[in-house]
Amino acid sequence: MLAFDTAPSSSPEETVNDELHRNESYTTLVWRRLRRSWTGMMGLVLVALLIVMAIFADFFAPMDPKATHVGFAPPQMISFRDKDGNLAFPPRVYALSESEELDPVTFQPIVGPDYDNPRHLGFFVKGAEYRLFGLIPLDRHFFGTVDGQPVHFLGTDKFGRDVLSRAIVGSRISLMIALVVVAIVTLIGTTVGLVSGYFGGTFDVWVQRFVELVLAFPQLPLYLALTSLIPITAPTNVFLGFVIIVMSALGWAQMSREVRGKTMALARVEYVRAAIAVGATDRRIIFQHILPNVMSHVIVAVTLHIPSVVLLESFLGFLGFAVKPPLISWGLMLQDTANYSVIGTYPWILAPVFFVLVTVFAFNALGDGLRDAVDPY
C-alpha cells in the first residue's frame, strides 16, 4: 500500500515568516520574548520612569527640597470641590494654617486646612529657581500651584521641608550610587571571572582563594567600620566617593564567581577550541568569543544586583553611614523614622519607603523578564 503524508503543508506566508524569524538577530529575539512578559515590560517602563525622574529631578520636584515651612505638616489632599462642597475645576489644595489650639500629645499647634485660601494646581508652573544639569537656569516645574505658593502632597519633615520634593531629588543620589557601584562591580567581576575561568590551573586556584577571602568578610560590620573612618568634616564628595569604593570593593566577588562558572563551560566548546587551534590570541578568544556569550548572564545579574545596592544604601543611610547632608538620599530621609513615636504621629515621613519599594520591584521585574528572554531554551 502507498503511504500518503496527511500533514498540512505550510502556506507561503508562514514559510516567509519562519524564514524571517530565523534570520533575526539575537537582540531582536530577546526583545520579542521580553515583550511577551508583562512583568518584564512593567519593570522596563518603571525603570525608564525612575531614570527620567532622577535626571530631571529638579523639574519634577514641585518645591525647593531645602526650603523650610511648617514642621511636620500633614499631606495636602488634592480637591475638586470648593469650601461649600460644590464641584470645582481646576483642582486645588488648601493651605495649611496653625491654630491657637495645641495637640494634647505633641503639645504643638494643630495644623489644618484653610478653606478660605484655595491654591489652584497646574502643570508646567513657575516655582523655585534651579539649574538644569547645573548649567541652565530655570524656574518651571512639572506640576504645582499656579501662583507658586508652597504645596506639600506628602507633607513636610521635622524641619518643614517638602517630603515629596526631597524624595524626588533624593532619587538622583540613591540611583547614582547604585548604578556606579554596579558598573564598577560588573567591570571588575566580569574581568576577573573571565581571566580566571579561561586560564585555569594554578592562576585560577590563587584567584579563587582571594575571591573566597573577600566573600568571607562579614560585610555589614565591615561597611560600618570603613565608613566610620571618614571624618564628619570631610567634603561630601569625598565621603560619597568613599562609600561607592567600599560597596564596590566588597561586591565584585560574587559576580566574578558567576562569570567564572560560565567561562569554564564556554572554554570547552568547539568554536573556542577551533580558535585556539588556528592560533588566535588569548585576548581575542576571551573578548571576542567568550565575553559575548557571557553578556546575557551579566545583564541579568546587573538588573538583579541594583536593587540590593539600593536597599544597602537605604539601610546605611538610615544608620547614618552613607550620605551626609546637604546631599539628599532615600536612606538619609529615613533617619527621621528612627523614633517609633514619630512614626505613629507623623506616618507620612515613611514616604521614601514607597520609592525604595517601587525601585526594587522595577529592577527585579525587569531582571526576571530578561532572565526568561535571554534563555535560549
Topology:
Layout: H1 12-23, H2 26-35, H3 38-55, H4 57-60, E1 79-81, E2 87-102, E3 109-132, E4 136-145, H5 163-199, H6 201-216, H7 219-227, H8 236-249, H9 252-266, H10 270-277, H11 282-319, H12 330-333, H13 340-345, H14 351-373
Antiparallel strand pairs: 1-2, 2-3, 3-4
Helix pairs in contact: 2-14, 3-5, 3-14, 5-6, 5-8, 5-9, 5-11, 6-9, 9-11, 10-11, 11-14
Provide a compact summary of the structure.
This protein has helices at 12-23, 26-35, 38-55, 57-60, 163-199, 201-216, 219-227, 236-249, 252-266, 270-277, 282-319, 330-333, 340-345, 351-373; strands spanning 79-81, 87-102, 109-132, 136-145. The chain has a four-stranded antiparallel sheet. 57% of the residues lie in helices and 14% in strands.
Structural write-up:
There is one protein chain. This protein has 377 residues and is α+β, with helices and mostly antiparallel strands. The protein contains 14 helices and four strands. Strand 1 (79-81) and strand 2 form a beta hairpin.
Can you tell me the CATH topology of the largest domain?
Answer: MetI-like fold
Which radius of gyration do the C-alpha atoms yield? 27 Å
* Order of helical and strand elements: HHHHEEEEHHHHHHHHHH
How many domains, as an integer? 2
CATH homologous superfamily of the largest domain - what is it? MetI-like
- Number of helices, where a helix is a run of at least 4 consecutive DSSP H or I residues: 14
Q: How many strands, which pairing sense, and closed or not: the largest β-sheet?
A: 4 strands, antiparallel
The gross shape turns out to be: elongated
Task: Return the CATH architecture of the largest domain.
Answer: Orthogonal Bundle
- Quaternary class: single chain
Separation of termini?
41 Å
Could you tell me the number of beta strands?
A: 4
Helix content: 55-70%
Structural class: alpha+beta
Strand ordering within the main sheet: 1-2-3-4
pLDDT below 50 for ≥5 consecutive residues: which ranges?
A: 1-7
> Given this structure, which CATH class of the largest domain is correct?
Mainly Alpha
Strand content: 5-15%
Mean pLDDT equals: 83
